[in-house]
């Protein structure tokens, strides 16, 4: 329903809305129809189809009709028969938590009549657990951000249940019972004006109201009206901004508040960064592109004000200097009056600047500018601290370091100066200091005490007991060949020996001495075959000839494999007598001296450094693919072998080449390469 006595067919003009809001600010919620007037003002101000003011049930002092967990305390609609839309009850569960954090929340919705609208929830700041619910039609999509900002500007209306004391010297106006109908053209202008400028609540317009400050110099321009904003209102705006949790929200609260108080079409605020102002916040815009024409002109005007301690105005009075950036912004964007001032305090660098632009014949007076400067004097340190806390920790560390270095080397070009000093000190150090230079290469543990274990006859491997890497003791069985066939040959040989022995005895009993000799010879042949078979059976078992480690031979490859006589099965190496074969690049070979010391780090144990001493240099280069020519250097290990060492282990080697100049160490390879490229 509408406010009492409101006419549903006419919309109020902007002046009526402003007067109604002024009356509500001076009034009290205890007055009859207060919340109905709030709902009606919000509906016309935000071009909504319906507005409801609700409070959570159980809040002390709340009265109204109950809808679920909510009390309806005021409403206004463009239809006299409209009731509370119960669909809101479901959407409040998601929109209210968001409105608690940001002050407002927006979501799509559909009314009971099937009309697509934007559901807007605005938190009322001075009323506990209370919210304004707005249905804004889809046709206002382009102006949605502005309409939400309008609702937020009204969200600080008095909301406690006690009367609000009037300001000294100001007589509160009674709350109007209704809005007076206005002609249709005026209503259309108020309702469809495009939303370029939100409704303003100036304290004094044109310098003619009660308590007006003396007119400023801007009033000397023909037809110009000045606006004065009391310091108390600006301090109240500062307190509202300081309740924000983020610097962006606080700055947006300030510029939107200034736009409302001064009736400005645009209020912009920017921070000074290295002597240039970058726009941080622009009224009525929650985001903007820095490369847009409007923002570029605004930043130029803000930057222009940094050079002066007084406010710059455009158009200028006769005889006063003309400021090009101000005039360009005014001409290109269609403003009538532009005023910009730096937030300078004495001789300190200005932290930023603020700009106020009007699209009509109004402008702020000098007293208001002084009040605005005082407000920023209070809020800027807090905003800077909040802004610094929101930065990434790396940027905070960079800024902290820049400040400390600035105190040492000067306020300008801090990083360049610090880098130059550091480079100069290092160049001086590199010219005279020396470092221990080491030649890098690859190394491998090697031993000359090795033994190949091969197959003694043709056959098949029946047993393999070791594999690569196993430690063995002298006499340990390494492998066994299959001896079943040899055992059969042994049985045959023994049988022949017995048979020939019996034939010899029989011939001897018959005195057949020739037969005795033949049988005896055959028995000796069988004995020889038996001895050979027994020797092969003994050789079928391979044993370790010394204590060492198996460096070649895999159990899985040998089991059941056929072998020929002489085939290699295992390779054993002694752990004693290990030495290191080092490969050194050709370019570093002249730096290697006999008896030079160094260190070996194996891949398997990079935490253990093994001391070395060069004992021989092989003077023949070997080519190893893309690595180029490599020289082999033999080095002995300067400590007792460890149990975990194995021949063939590889790693990195560093050989001491003596002390060298630091500059030479850092540049000698580049110099050598240039010499090869530029020789003639």
Task: Give the helix/strand layout.
Elements (H helix, E strand, L loop, with lengths): L13 H13 L7 H12 L4 E7 L8 E3 L2 E8 L9 H16 L1 E7 L5 E8 L6 E8 L6 H11 L29 H8 L12 E2 L19 E4 L2 H12 L4 H16 L3 E8 L2 E7 L10 H13 L6 E3 L9 H10 L3 E6 L9 E7 L3 E3 L1 H24 L3 H17 L4 H19 L1 E13 L3 E5 L4 E6 L6 E2 L4 E5 L2 H26 L3 H27 L1 E3 L4 E5 L2 H4 L3 E2 L4 E6 L5 E7 L11 E6 L6 E15 L5 E9 L12 E12 H17 L2
Parallel strand pairs: 8-14
Antiparallel strand pairs: 1-3, 1-6, 2-3, 4-5, 5-6, 7-8, 9-10, 9-13, 11-12, 12-13, 15-24, 15-28, 16-23, 17-19, 17-22, 18-21, 19-20, 21-23, 24-27, 25-26, 25-28, 26-27
Q: Poorly predicted ranges (pLDDT <50, ≥5 residues)? A: 1-10, 161-217
**Level-1 CATH class name of the largest domain:** Alpha Beta
**What is the CATH architecture assignment of the largest domain?**
2-Layer Sandwich
Structural class: alpha+beta
Kindly provide the radius of gyration, computed on alpha-carbon positions and rounded to a whole number of angstroms.
Answer: 50 Å
Bin the helical content.
25-40%
Q: What's the number of helices? A: 16
Amino-to-carboxy terminus distance: 100 Å
Our count of domains comes out at 4
Average pLDDT number? 79
Give a count of the beta strands, DSSP E runs of length 2 or more: 28
InterPro entries: UPF0194_transport (IPR050465)
Protein name: HlyD family efflux transporter periplasmic adaptor subunit
Organism: Pigmentiphaga litoralis
Subcellular location: Cell envelope
Condensed summary:
With 680 residues, the chain is α+β, with helices and mostly antiparallel strands. The chain is built from 16 helices and 28 strands.
